[in-house]
Design goal:
Number of helices: 11
Radius of gyration: 25 Å
CATH architecture of the largest domain: Alpha-Beta Barrel
Distance between the termini: 91 Å
Number of domains: 2
Shape: globular
CATH topology of the largest domain: TIM Barrel
Strand content: 15-25%
Structural class: alpha/beta
Largest sheet: 8 strands, parallel
Strand order of the largest sheet: 11-8-7-6-5-2-1-12
């Protein structure tokens, strides 16, 4: 009998042990599906305002997004970047800075939503944000609950002060926290491409930064000593080899737009065109309340935006370079193609393209541009004029640091 009892106890112990092990709490580390099926479009405060954010300015930006025509062009998100944070309460829940956001984030979200727009916010995987405010490390689930309570639609999640953390694990934690909170929120992974987020981020976030920060320069590098900021062309070059990772719901993010922040119109036009060609998120970073006519025309060019927002979600690629002019192609729906000639030099360049003599094969997208077998209509997306068909040899002069951007459509 004693042996029987001992045997039962041993069996019970093993059973209880197995029961406990089999019921460990399993997290859902995946993003919300069905969001960002085309690259997100919106505005972010950092490039122009850095830490100088408050609720009055955010409301005015939302107003300007509507009145300028940007909302009608497809821009949706009003994203507050760093420095909105106040302190955590005794239970660890984050609250906004009471001087900058006296009405609270929920009231601000309500205001933005009432205009048919969405509100985004910022946090950091580390103990502190890049601006020295409270980070989310150790508070991920509480922060996600607050974002859901406030009505947040988009979270940019940065990577400062992350000593000892592994990026994939940290971003899975915040993805699980957002899932648990229950509100569908776009997750923007912002760890600067250091840990190759394109290799693991597809199921975790909706977009991921591929580089360090952009700054307001067309073709140069700003050295801060321990890190660098990159000009538009430098960031463009860093996208090489990444197109296979992008697609509906998961985008390579070459950082926010600098259009309207001081570069001349030709450089802004080239910047915007190339972000569209590589299916990048179009997150403007200028002061929407004070835009000149050229800036508005660039940011609201619906034909260029349509290239970026094409539902196939195929990122464009650089096909060739000749005399400082790069030729880029992007397959579009219905058999169309976007073609962009980028003149990176500081002097005008003349190009000539015999469409019928150049068959373009895209093995990744399984698409072919063959003007010998198919005649395409040629549309100039910046002049917004038709330019004949691919039966005619294209001859054009491209100004310095500018583009010729075309859409080839089947007749």
């Amino acid at each position: 009998m004693r042996k029987t009892i001992l045997g039962l106890v041993a069996a019970l112990g093993l059973s209880l042990s197995g029961f406990a092990q089999g019921n460990n709490y399993a997290q859902n580390y995946t993003k919300f599906e069905g969001l960002a099926l085309t690259p997100p479009m919106g505005w972010n405060s950092w490039n122009k305002f850095a830490c100088n954010v408050d609720e009055k300015m955010i409301r005015e930006i939302a107003d300007a997004m509507v009145s300028s025509g940007m909302k009608d062009a497809g821009y949706t998100y009003i994203n507050i970047d760093d420095c909105w944070h106040g302190d955590r309460d005794s239970l660890g829940f984050i609250h906004p800075d009471p001087k900058r956001f006296p009405s609270g984030i929920k009231a601000l979200a309500d205001y933005v939503h009432a205009k048919g727009l969405k509100l985004g916010i910022y946090s950091d995987a580390g103990s502190q944000t890049c601006g020295g405010r409270p980070g989310s490390r150790g508070f991920e689930f509480q922060d996600a609950q607050m974002y859901a309570k406030w009505g947040i639609d988009y979270l940019k999640y940065d990577w400062c002060n992350t000593e000892g953390l592994k990026a994939e694990g940290a971003y899975k934690t915040i993805a699980a926290a957002l899932r648990k909170a229950g509100r569908p929120i776009v997750l923007s992974i912002c760890e600067w491409g250091t840990d190759k987020p394109w290799e693991w981020g597809q199921n975790v976030g909706h977009l991921w930064r591929t580089t360090g920060d952009i700054f307001n320069c067309f073709d140069c590098i700003e050295d801060h000593g321990t890190w660098k900021s990159w000009g538009v062309m430098q960031i463009l070059d860093k996208q090489e080899g990444l197109r296979e990772y992008a697609g509906p719901g998961h985008w390579n993010d070459p950082d926010m737009l600098e259009v309207g922040n001081g570069m001349p119109a030709n450089q802004d036009r080239a910047h915007f065109s190339m972000w569209a060609m590589i299916a990048a998120p179009l997150i403007s970073g200028n002061d929407l309340r004070n835009m000149n006519r050229q800036t508005v025309e660039i940011l609201t060019n619906k034909e260029v935006i349509a290239v970026d927002q094409d539902e196939l979600g195929i990122q464009g690629f650089r096909h060739s370079v000749k005399d400082s002019v790069e030729t880029w192609y992007k397959p579009l729906k219905n058999g169309d193609w976007a073609v962009c000639f980028l003149n990176r030099s500081k002097s005008p360049k003349t190009i000539e393209m015999n469409w019928e003599a150049n068959t373009i094969s895209d093995s990744f997208a399984k698409r072919e541009l063959n003007a010998r077998t198919t005649t395409y209509k040629v549309r100039n997306l910046w002049s917004k004029k038709d330019q004949g068909t691919t039966k005619k040899v294209l001859k054009a002069n491209i100004p310095a640091q500018d583009v010729l951007m075309l859409r080839l459509g089947k007749r």
